[in-house]
Amino acid sequence: MALNQGAPDWWRKAVLYQVYPRSFQDSNGDGIGDLKGIEQRLGYLSDLGVDAIWISPFFKSPMRDFGYDVEDHRAVDPIFGDLNDFKRLLDAAHRRGIRVMIDLVLSHASETHEWFRDARLSTDSRYSDCFVWADARPDGGPPNNWLSIFGGPAWTWEPRRRQYYLHNFLSSQPDLNFHNPVVQQEALDVARWWLELGVDGFRLDTVNFYFHNVALKDNPPSGRGRTQVVSESNPYGFQEHLYDKNQPEVLNFLDRLGNLLAEYPGSMALGEVGAERAWADQLMEAYSAPGRLQLCYTFDLLSDGFSPDHFRRVIGIQSGTPLWRCLSFSNHDVVRAATRFSRDESEAPLVSKLAMALLLSLPGTPCLYQGDELGLTEADVPFDKLVDPYGITFWPTFKGRDGCRTPMPWNTGPNAGFTTRDGVPWLPISEDHPALSVSEQETAESSVLTLVKDLIRIRKTELGFAAGEVRFYEMEDGILMFDRVSGEDVVTCVFNLSRTRHTVQLDPGPIWSIVLGQQGASIGSNERLELPPLAWAYLKSGSPDFNSAP
Ligand code: BGC
Question: 373 alpha carbon to ligand 1 midpoint, in Å?
């Protein structure tokens, strides 16, 4: 049974936490994190104050894309444990009031999936139409110009069947054909199977890729071509993805999924919507219409944008619309925020604190990626240690995703407490990380971890940031300032995103006080807020009860 506690829309007020299981905690010394390891660390997650965890895929898989290539959607891969380990983890999490969301990868399967092994042999296979097949063009080429995100054409020739099959990612991740009712039914059956087991929800991998255009029309050029750095080495951005994803048929499927979720009170789904800026909001609005998905996961804060204008736009989209999005600064696919937004390493702790204070002050549902709460920086993984095929292909323009996936540092002992003394972590532990480990930070008053615990606590309690409106101030360059308004309650949030000191003149009428803020942020005479570079503060005005700066 899903955790039946609190309101059915618990996800609106929740703080989510993404666990990348390979790198969270290894319990058996094989150098790869596992389900028992997650269970051992539930106390940590509970102290942190998160309401739900999203666990990246732990299903049976050949691990070409580290679990996002599923062989059997109903089985736990032995490297992570077994189904009993999952049931124990789920029960233990529920006992602590933590909900568990699993990562359903439905858009594609692994080439080792039973259906594909059969379908690739012949057009007579009973699973023939469960994948997307097309004949060669008369010149032998693939049926159209679609590209794989991970490099090269989105089509691979299958000599046994003498046809091409579609894959938006690796060639070992054949695309499932959602136009086939059998595929849709199986996707719903898989979801039901896990709901019956008691999971509280799903993160839906690449939900906007479920359907393709059946006429297999060519995508037109985007016109963005070589102007974008990533596109220089990856032509995927050269195209406008009109036909290989974002197809309207997905809405009917999401209605069906919504009906299924409604049978399990308190369950929910969070859809990952990776789409070009111009369309993303429209898609998310349609996907999260009533009866469909509860939440969509936006890429808005996963970019390099670190300016007041950028954040104003992102926050502005959220406020004033019924669209409730899930926001994150880091995940297992992008360079960690502490590095992405810092000009050099020395800035990383300040940048991390500011990013967490910003994220946890926003409307929407915040999602922390493991290690965000420690201010972990991107690990520098040398080419000969890379395992991510995406990074290996595009090195060095794009170094792939290994640098954000290295193991969690729990302490300063052998292997940072991630695995046993003799265990060999599947990815190297960054030399910089033991100093940022949990044991180093949990008793330090000024650590990122201590701050994040405070931020989560006050977001949910006294500040009530999970609800309410946003009112922006027109500010000088480098400063982002807005009010979070909930009924009579107003909290003013000010962030200095620049590398220079700023003085912000507050409304001189009321008495102002700092509820929580970066060390060095202070209110001087005449209600002037002093903000050193990269400092921030949550302020209240008028109430003599809030007089103490931490
Ligand atoms: C996941 C990636 C994965 C891809 C293909 C995503 O968006 O987050 O890690 O490689 O889907 O499944």
Answer: 23
> What atom of ligand 1 comes closest to residue 331's alpha carbon?
8
Q: Dump pLDDT digits (tens) for 136-193.
A: 999 999 999 999 999 999 999 999 999 999 999 999 999 999 999 999 999 999 999 9
> Does ligand 1 come within 6 angstroms of the Cβ of 311?
no
pLDDT of residue 548: 42
Question: Who contacts 213 (Cβ-Cβ below 8 Å, separation ≥6)?
Answer: 242, 243, 244, 247
CA 39 – CA 60 distance, rounded (Å) = 19
- For 527, the token pair is 């209600």
Residue 333 Cβ < 6 Å to ligand 1: yes
Number of the ligand 1 atom closest to the C-alpha atom of 274 = 7
pLDDT in tens, 477-521: 999 999 999 888 899 999 999 999 999 999 988 899 999 999 999
Does the CB atom of residue 65 touch ligand 1 within 6 A? yes
Cβ of 77 below 6 Å from ligand 1: no
Q: How does pLDDT run across 241-258, given as a tens digit for each residue? A: 999 999 999 999 999 999
Query: What pLDDT score does 19 carry?
Result: 99
Specify whether the CB–CB gap between 210 and 253 falls below 8 A. Answer: yes
Which atom of ligand 1 is found nearest the CA of 169? Answer: 5
Report d(CA 504, CA 496) in Å as an integer.
Answer: 10
pLDDT of residue 229: 45
**pTM value?**
0.96
Q: How far is the CA of 508 from the centre of ligand 1 (A)?
A: 50
User: Which token pair is 223?
Assistant: 């016109």
Read off the tokens for 466: 């999970």
CB-ligand 1 contact for 539 (6 Å cutoff):
no
Q: List residues with catalytic annotation.
A: 205, 263
pLDDT of residue 85: 98
Q: What is the 3-state secondary structure (H, E, C) of 149-177?
A: CCCCECEEEECCCCEEEECCCCCCCCEEC
Bridge partners of 489, per DSSP, are 486
Q: Does residue 320 surpass a pLDDT of 80?
A: no
- The 3 state secondary structure assigned to 393-447 is HHCCCCCCCHHHCCCCCCCCCHHHHCCCCCCCCCCCCCCCCHHHCHHHHCCCCCC
